[in-house]
Design goal:
Layout: H1 13-20, H2 23-37, H3 42-52, E1 59-63, H4 70-81, E2 84-86, H5 88-93, H6 98-110, H7 115-126, H8 129-134, E3 136-139, H9 145-153, E4 160-165, H10 168-176, E5 178-180, E6 187-189, H11 198-203, H12 212-229, E7 237-241, H13 246-257, E8 270-274, H14 281-292, E9 295-298, H15 299-308, H16 314-322, H17 329-340, H18 343-348, E10 350-353, H19 359-367, E11 374-379, H20 382-389, E12 392-394, E13 401-403, H21 412-417, H22 426-446, E14 451-454, H23 459-471
Helix pairs in contact: 2-3, 4-13, 7-9, 10-12, 14-23, 15-16, 20-22
């Protein structure tokens, strides 16, 4: 490569296209499938893989001890995600091949299946069209490390693994009260979840193996096995406490399976911070720029720099500054487009704040092909904003800035000469707050993947949430 041509200019639309269409992840998934299946002719295989378009369907494993509620959580997730639930029982019940006939005979004798037969049954089911298109949820499988390794060998790889835990005493108490509706398969409990309908009550049956000695033995087997299963899924594992209401467990599980794991794809952050005046946008932008090397683009400061540097836009902006008027959107957009298109912004990424403030400005920014790939709204209540801004003061002698509550002046002499910026008065702050929240709903609607944060907390806590939102992919709303 000719060093004299460096640095090479990468058009901003190229990485944006790759990120928007998940090109890296698509190629990575296709390569994984090629290595797993090793087809004789890779080209038709890749074409078929792309046509299936199933890289984002659910592939979930739910594990846990007896009475932890894993079957209930699996059923609820299956209904919510419109996915396929697989258990040992419905694998055996399915009548579709010589494998199922062998499985039925084995299961009737021992109420269990040999690991190899179980995994081959699973692979056969997962190759069917409905599982390819809608994904799958495995309930209580794998039970042993042997099964986990066999699944990996045959290319059965979940994207999310949930492990439920609870104290043994709680699980034994739960199990003793478990009842099953033989018609629907729904699970109830004599204490925690008793059906109100007498008809259902009368047909409920106690399943086999629920009494205390049997439950204790099954728990012991689970504890022996689970510690050897978990190392097979180091980066996709989520442990949830089952010792809480089932609905809470379900929503925690749902939140997790809708997250996307951190990708190895090249990623250049283009961050937009939105929030009312005093919400901490400038501080968060400075922290991001300091830690990740992003270019800090404050719209107001950028316009001042353009005027000071006598650039080609300075003559157009200066009259508005001199008359203290708002600079028209068309000029702001041209200045922003020029800055965000510069090599440092394209190469290192940027964090923008102070623009857009309304829906029209957001559309103008989007038209520049400089769309943000992470958007954060910092919500702070009016009382906190008033406390932050209206108590700010400046020493006209030294230029030192103070806050009457958080950083009071050291002496009465200094306090007596402090001045307040006219833009920190209560009326001005209320006006700015009203303008922001008048347009914020439309902005949030435009940026549908925006992350809403509570900005009324320690700034470094807010930064940790923003940092997490940048590092990890935006959670998917639905599969």
């Amino acid at each position: 490569m000719d060093a004299t041509t460096a640095p090479h200019r990468i058009p901003p639309e190229m990485p944006q296209y790759g990120e928007a269409n998940h090109i890296f992840e698509m190629m990575q998934n296709m390569l994984e499938q090629l290595l797993i299946h090793q087809p004789k002719d890779p080209i038709p295989f890749m074409i078929n893989h792309l046509q299936q378009d199933n890289d984002n369907v659910p592939k979930i494993v739910i594990l846990g001890p007896p009475a932890s509620g894993k079957t209930t959580i699996a059923m609820w997730l299956s209904k919510h995600l419109k996915s396929n639930l697989l258990t040992v029982e419905n694998l055996v019940a399915k009548d579709y091949s010589f494998l199922s006939d062998d499985a039925k005979r084995q299961y009737q004798k021992t109420k269990a299946l040999p690991s190899m037969l179980l995994v081959r049954l699973i692979r056969a089911r997962l190759s069917e069209d409905d599982f390819i298109k809608q994904g799958w949820i495995l309930d209580g499988i794998p039970e042993t490390r042997e099964q986990a390794l066999m699944m990996q060998t045959l290319g059965i790889a979940p994207r999310h693994v949930i492990v439920l835990t609870a104290p043994d005493t709680v699980l034994i108490e739960r199990n003793v009260g478990k009842r099953i509706d033989p018609q629907t398969g729904e699970i109830y409990h004599t204490t925690f979840d008793w059906p109100p309908e007498p008809e259902i009550q009368n047909r409920l049956r106690a399943p086999a193996g629920i009494w205390e000695p049997e439950t204790a033995q099954r728990l012991l087997e689970h504890h022996r096995n689970i510690v050897r299963v978990l190392p097979a899924y180091p980066k996709i594992l989520k442990v949830l406490s089952a010792d809480q209401p089932c609905v809470d467990v379900f929503y925690q599980a749902l939140t997790y399976v809708q997250t996307r794991h951190r990708s190895n794809a090249p990623f250049t952050p283009r961050v937009l911070l939105c929030g009312p005046v005093g919400s901490g946008k400038s501080l968060q932008a400075a922290l991001l720029a300091q830690k990740y090397g992003l270019i800090n683009v404050c719209c107001g400061q950028l316009l001042k720099e353009v005027v000071a540097n006598e650039s080609k836009f300075s003559e157009a902006i200066r009259p508005y500054f001199e008359q203290e008027l708002t600079v028209p959107d068309r000029i702001i957009v041209k200045v922003l487009g020029q800055r965000l298109g510069q090599h440092d912004c394209v190469q290192r990424g940027w964090v923008l704040h102070g623009f857009p403030r309304d829906l029209d400005q957001a559309r103008l920014l989007d038209s520049l092909d400089h769309s943000p790939n992470r958007v954060f709204f910092l919500n702070v209540p009016l009382d906190s904003i008033m406390e932050r801004l209206t108590l700010r003061r400046t020493d006209p002698v030294t230029g030192e800035r103070y806050h009457l509550m958080y950083k009071p002046p050291p002496t009465m002499e200094i306090q007596d000469r402090l001045l307040q910026n006219p833009k920190d008065t209560e009326d001005w702050v209320k006006l700015k707050m009203d303008l922001f929240y008048k347009n914020s709903a439309e902005l949030e609607g435009f940026y549908k993947d925006a992350i809403i944060l509570n900005g009324d907390q320690d700034p470094y806590t807010v930064f940790e949430y923003i940092e997490s939102g940048i590092i990890y992919p935006v959670p998917s709303k639905v599969f």
